[in-house]
Amino acid sequence: MRVCVVGAGIVGLTAAFELARRGATVDLFERRAGPGEGCSFYAGGMIAPWCERESAEPIVTELGLEGLDFWTRTLPVAERHGSLVVAPPRDRPDVVRFSRRTSHFEECDQRRIGEIEPDLADRFPYGLFFAQEAHIEPRAAMAEIARALGSLPNATLHVSTEAPAADGYDWTLDCRGFSAREALPDLRGVKGEMLVLATDELKISRPVRMLHPRHPVYVVPRPDGSYMIGATMVENEEPGRVTARALMELTGAAYTLHPAFGEAEIVETGADVRPAFPDNLPRIRVRDRRIHINGLYRHGFLLSPALARRAADIVTKDARFPEFDR
Amino acid sequence: MGQTNDDPLTFYGERLDSRLLVGTSMYDSPAILADSVRASGAEVVTVSLRREAGGAQAGQSFWSLIKNLGVRVLPNTAGCRTVKEAVTTAEMAREVFETPWIKLEVIGEDDTLQPDVFGLVEAARILNREGFRVFPYTTEDLVVAEKLLGAGCEVLMPWGAPIGSGRGLNNPYGLRSLRAHFPGVPLVVDAGIGAPSHAAAAMEMGYDAILLNTAIAKAGDAVAMAHAFKLAVTAGREAFLAGPMEARDMASPSTPVFGRAFT
Fold this sequence. Notes:
- The complex is a heterodimer.
- Chain A is α/β, with parallel strands linked by helices.
- Helix content of chain A is 28%, strand content 26%.
- Chain A contains seven helices and 16 strands.
- Chain A is globular, with a radius of gyration of 20 Å.
- Chain B has a five-stranded parallel beta sheet. In chain B, strands 6-7-8 form a three-stranded parallel beta sheet.
- In chain B, helix 4 (83-97) packs across helix 5 (117-129), helix 5 (117-129) packs parallel to helix 6 (142-150) and helix 8 (196-204) runs parallel beside helix 10 (222-242).
- Chain B is globular, with a radius of gyration of 20 Å.
- The termini of chain B are far apart.
- The A-B interface holds A 55-57, 93, 97, 100-101, 187-189, 191, 213-214, 234-238, 241, 243, 276, 278-281 and B 28-32, 34, 51-56, 58-62, 65, 164, 166, 214, 218, 220.
């Protein structure tokens, strides 16, 4: 069985990894300078199947549980300290709404929040703690998969600007994200902007989401002590450009979470386009011998392990998943 | 739609059958947005230019999703804080959405998002002169309303409560007074509506239509809530036309007491 995987973002990497582990001969092609340099590069890396239910369908939680298992057991790069949801006193209705739509959390008062994240003590009167959730550093996670692929004799990563030749393969997996749009007319882009702040005045150990009616943000700690602050959601397909407004919203919200962010150094800003279908749910579309895995929207790292498994079932077991082939 | 055909609403000479206008932001997905708009029966949706079109007008996919809804678009100047910003945004919106309709917002205060009514009147004057059909987002203030009409507006959109607050009609007295002062002007309660009962209450007062977004988009089931609002707006309108009874202080038996057997 020879399989060509196009695109070495998180979807292509997990798909190639899953297929190679099952014994297929896999060629993974990437036209950028290396793996993981598309929109996955800017991901938050929250493996939060229960939190995501706040704005996503139940299937996202279901598939996300497989993702949680993948990142904590199959490829154990995740930190598992749970995630915390807080809101300033006047936005308490947003916490109530969040709690109504989600599950698997502990309701926290001010004291409990201080136990979980001491630096956030006395800052927020209510919160929700999702103890079983995890987070990863997306770039390190992708490098780890690439390394794992490199150690398998039946997998090869090709970094080249030339389009891969489709002949000679039993299957082609198209994992190009928004770049596959010409083949997927109902795919749209949802722009996201992020930044990374570095400060040693603050120690936060798990992702914290701060709810706000207009500018909800999340803060994800990185292993080097910096913090990824994300992310805007704009129905707009322009990549690359970080607006002043976005920076204002993200830094303003980070500052509200903790004033120490006001003195932090901005070490990175970034923007890219998330691929999404109209219902914001992923697809695995089988067309002849070509499989499109796309539309993971905000949930690339959360959902890609489950989708990779299903795509591999199609290739190796002739399985079909009509619920994702719409 | 359909059941109130003999009671149309007119904005700038355009006839509408539905008296519910809905916003398009904050939905969990465009698919849920589309289903909600259909369930609401709305014939007009508001779209924010600033957020969705971007500098390079790259929001083409979202825009074509909106177009496919088959409804009229009322672009808005949401988030604008100055007259100049609002006017520029309106001009861009006219080009992008190919309509002279504009929901004019000039925000004066960040916490309450309440309109800067001085800037609003000035921007309305400029835009009306440029041939726009202006739908100003205003307060229930009578003098401001008068000035907006003087600036050429033929529709007024007073708030019920601050945007996104879901508090309903904060000042029913003021809203009644506005309605009474301008019996011939189409008045739309815009912003602050949280529950269908709020929408029905405004319609019972004689308001011509309701514009809302968050109450549907952030409901547990947006599509079901959209339908609930459709029913509430229709109920409120029919109640207004039917003429609600006057409240009184004492009980008034609905069956005669006189002649009833002693028990």
